[in-house]
Amino acid sequence: AADAAQADVEDVQVQQLQAALSAYYDLLAAQDRLREVSAIERSLADVAGMADRRVKAGDLSAQDAARTRIEAERARADTRAAEQARDDAALALAQVTGSTGSRLEAVDTPWPALTGDPPATDADLAAWAETRADVRAALARAQAAQAALEGANALRKSDWTVGASVDHFPGTSTRQVELRVQVPLQWGYQYQGEIGRAQADYAKAQDALDNTRRLALLDLQRLRQTQDNAARRAADYDQGVLPRARQVADSAELAYRKGAIALTDLLDAQRTLRATLLDALAARADYAKARGAWLLRTRPQVLAGTP
Description:
Number of helices: 6
Strand content: 5-15%
Shape: rod-shaped
Number of strands: 2
Largest sheet: 2 strands, antiparallel
Order of helices and strands: HHHHEEHH
Structural class: mainly alpha
């Protein structure tokens, strides 16, 4: 029972570590989101300033300049929202970790690499499931219930008590020898109630162990699938979608500065880049949290030293 309680403590610790890891990567994503949105805001502010100069030179209509100013103001509003999201993420991490004082900040922490681990076999998942704290707690409770059942069955065995004594009376030769035998007689009751209860407790503990093992295995399969899907999605953004969106936005801004494209095309490219950046950061954060949860449940030693 003590082993089961200790395993319960370890399971709660793992759950708290998962919550802290998730909150940490939420903060890291919020900081990167603020950095990217601020860069877009500065770019749109430059475009708005350039539009004002073109209006004065008679090269651009006042309406188009107003549209660029509106986009710049929207970008500034997005930056304020990103700042609020960063502050909220820092507060959430502080609540999980019990930190006090100044606002927390993720400093010099790279995102986890997208290189995948070797595929885990079903045998690996089964072995990892047996090492989980919740499974170990259920196994210890089943063993405790089995011991209680053996103790209840032992009540049926009669314990005979045999004793002897010698009494000596000084001044005489009288001696008294006494032999005692005590045999409990169990008539009409064989501890059926205690044994039946112990059997029910053992069956309940065994069912709980089987169910915990099944849920642990399913949870590991879910974590593995979530990590694989998140890695593919993050890789798609990191290696394909985001670089192309940046290239299109840079080309559109350069072309607009030279008067080669209309303002509408530039704004569309900037909106596409902004949406792609946010989606890419969300994909990165999802992968980081999925990988962290997977490692905590399978190989926690890999996370040693991770903030």
